[in-house]
Design goal:
Strand order of the largest sheet: 2-1-3-10-4
Shape: globular
Strand content: 15-25%
Structural class: alpha/beta
Length: 327
């Protein structure tokens, strides 16, 4: 009798498991059935915000559901993805923008999340170029002037960025370290605030995405002193690269999309295909040109592999910027 009851119970459990798996499969096939929240770790109005708003708008057309952008700046642009990783279900309804800071910040601050294991890497979507600029009225006409002034006035050169721990912050500190000067970093909540600080004379310089700085430069409000690209860019005529000036500092910074760990493969693939289509659209290519960003697409597997390798290499940049946290 006991044996019979055990067999019946086993059969019931097996049937329930099959039913549950069937329901999960149906849910994954139907995904998405409601709006998707996309967290962005920068303030509204900056290059990253504009980029992901456009990607979300285009991807939503293929997914058939709206993608709602929620700005969550802070912690070197890692507050958005780390909050998602710790608090959200891996059901595809909350995803986040990922920038290089996600793979760097743990070297700078103690965190309670793992930059690789706690995320599902969905898609690599593009890359930034960065530049150093000053107010057009600044007496600092070139990098030589800036370095000479900084050496005569240690700590008096103030550099505005979109926040502590961001790529912009790291590049400013790394350049200062290589040049043997001391700067004072001033972190703001976003690129718009950093740019306003330079234009208003509250800070002397800024490091930001080229797409953010270029409109100021083209309108005669800022002077670009150098870029961090491998080669001189056509849209920055006469502007040297850090490398050409003797500083081994070439820094492309890819960005992409992540979700909480454990996302089902079918949902990951739907998101990847939708955002891949968005990134390949003519409308998005025009935005890349406007923002002077680079095309950089990776599949989920390729994106995770890149993240693992980049995470290892980022330690050296943090170390050169003298921001490596103590154990």
């Amino acid at each position: 009798m006991n044996s019979l009851w055990a067999s019946v119970r086993h059969g019931m459990l097996a049937a329930a498991l099959v039913a549950a798996n069937g329901q999960i499969a149906i849910a994954q096939d139907a995904y998405p059935v409601r709006s998707i929240k996309l967290l962005v770790g920068f303030a509204a109005g900056g290059a990253t915000d504009v980029t992901f708003r456009k990607l979300g708008e285009l991807a939503s057309k293929q997914l058939g559901q709206p993608i709602i952008i929620e700005n969550k700046p802070g912690a070197g642009a890692t507050l958005a993805p780390s909050t998602m990783a710790k608090a959200e279900k891996p059901d595809g309804y909350t995803i986040a923008a990922a920038t290089a800071g996600l793979l760097r910040y743990p070297y700078m601050q103690k965190v309670d999340w793992d930059p690789i294991q706690d995320f599902t890497w969905i898609a690599g979507l593009g890359g930034y170029s960065f530049a150093l600029a000053v107010n057009a009225d600044s007496p600092l006409k070139n990098v030589t002037d800036l370095i000479a002034y900084a050496k005569d006035n240690p700590g008096k050169v103030t550099v505005a960025t979109a926040g502590a721990g961001t790529t912009m912050h790291l590049l400013a500190e790394a350049l200062a370290g290589m040049a043997g000067i001391e700067i004072t970093h001033v972190g703001y909540r976003g690129s718009s605030e950093a740019g306003t600080a330079v234009l208003g004379g509250h800070t002397m310089a800024t490091v930001d995405a080229v797409g953010t700085i270029l409109p100021y430069s083209e309108s005669g409000k800022m002077r670009v002193l150098l870029s961090f690209d491998a080669l001189p860019m056509d849209w920055l005529p006469g502007v040297p690269t850090a490398k050409s000036l003797g500083y081994d500092l070439v820094y492309p910074a890819p960005y992409g999309l992540v979700g909480p760990k454990g996302m089902p493969a079918p949902i990951v693939d739907k998101l990847y295909q939708a955002f891949k289509s968005a990134a390949e659209s003519d409308e998005y290519r025009k935005l890349l040109e406007t923002l002077k960003q680079t095309k950089w697409q990776r599949s989920p597997h390729e994106y995770e592999q890149w993240a693992r390798e980049f995470y290892v290499s980022e330690r050296s940049l943090v170390d050169r910027a003298k921001l490596l946290r103590q154990p």
